[in-house]
Amino acid sequence: MKRVRVLFLLLNSFAGAQTAGTSAPPKITYIWCGTLYDGKQDAAQKTVTLRIVGNKIDSVRPNTKSAEEKGAEVIDLSNSVCLPGLIDTHTHVLLQGDITAEDYDVQLLKWSTPYRTILGTVAAKRMLGYGFTTIRDLETEGAGYADVDIKKAINDGVIPGPRMQTSGRAMDVTGAYPILGYSWELRMPKGVQEVDGVEGGHKAVREQISNGVDWIKVYSDRSYYARPDGVLEDIPTFTLDELRAIVDETHRERHKIASHAMALNGVHNSVEAGVDSIEHGNYIADADLKTMVAKGIYYVPTLYVGEYVAEGRAAAGAKVWLDMIRIHEDTFRRAMKAGVKIAFGTDAGGFAWKINPAKEFPIMVKYGMTPAQALRSANMSAAELLGMPDKIGSIEAGKFADIVAVPGDPMADVEQLQKVNFVMKDGVVYVKP
Ligand SMILES: [Zn+2]
Which of 177, 285, 321, 386 fits a disulfide with 172 by CB distance 3.0 to 4.6 angstroms? Predict the structure, then answer.
């Protein structure tokens, strides 16, 4: 196996060396930004020239509007505010909104994986159009490893879309995850890979990584109810031993693991086992917030989707979803106070793709963040969670040319982040004002 990999690397570098000798010099583009927030400092810089060479940022020059080479392309954003490309660390491009169980079942029972993948390519394109140049897609909900294929199609230049990190099928224990509730005589498709036992955990991680995922995703809890004292209770899915086995094998293979954990026990087991990110985290006990700080575990709160699904799910009889909004706000405020690292994530796909996921920003601000903090969660914080702080998340020489622009100052009006009118990813312009 090792030998095959070495050979593959050699062939790759050989191909690279050949094309380097014959291809044209990289394209040079100048972007004139009226205002720049570079993602490193909170203060605005006025009248900045970005020089882009190929797919990289070559230089950032303050107080200038320049273009040295004749024939280089100049993009004039003098009336706009430039920002690093946005990063959403929790999406589902293979999902088209699932307020009710019926919405979900239709997608798994009536739509083929090829059809869902076609819709997924449209979702990816929309995401790029909204200004999200990188996403971490957190499981396909029954569509196998179609996320790995969408990522490949984007990387090969077949379709437009953000840079992607994928997680394939995700894992839960037997009988805990939809599709549920049909006759026991029917073998229903599942939204996850069902995994049980320590050995089962090791094997499932190996299988998923061999199929090309970047991340492992587990569901750590289910069946929520709000206690009178404001604690959100749950049934943990995996035992702590099972969870530890999955986490250890993931890390042994130098990958990372995200845990869907919305309530008391699921979060506790996840932070004890040492996952890399807590997804949703509607309720997190103070002691677990402390452990998250100590271990450097990220919190990806996904606030907007809770408000979006609450009305529908409450109308269908599950009132707990309304309680969860209040509990979530309290947890978010406590997490900020405790100094937990927070990365921007929305659960897009859990709500319809025609809704701009940047609706998450105003809720973060409503719950106590400054616009600068909210923006940082979708820039450098997210880049760090994704293990790419040297490549994305800020506008600096040497990083990928992932640049977006909005018409007004997002520090004064965070709603501006829903009005992205320029998108460059990897040095290629996808949206122009
Ligand atoms: Zn999700």
Answer: 177
Nearest-angstrom CA–CA distance, 398 and 341: 25
Is residue 367 within 8 A of residue 329, CB to CB? The reply is yes
pLDDT tens by residue, 285-321: 999 999 999 999 999 999 999 888 887 788 888 888 8
For 188-245, what is the HEC assignment? CCCCCEECCHHHHHHHHHHHHHHCCCCEEEEECEEEEEECCCCCEEEEECCCHHHHHH
Whether the pLDDT of residue 166 is over 60: the answer is yes
Ligand 1 center from residue 205 Cα (angstroms) = 19
- Whole-Å CA distances, 318 to 238, 268, 390: 24, 24, 44
From the CA of 2, how far away is ligand 1's center (Å)? 35
Going by DSSP bridges, is the β-strand pair 403-406/73-84 parallel, antiparallel, or unpaired?
antiparallel
Here the tokens at position 170 are 């995700």
Worst-scoring range by mean pLDDT, 9-23, 207-221, 276-290, 302-316? 9-23
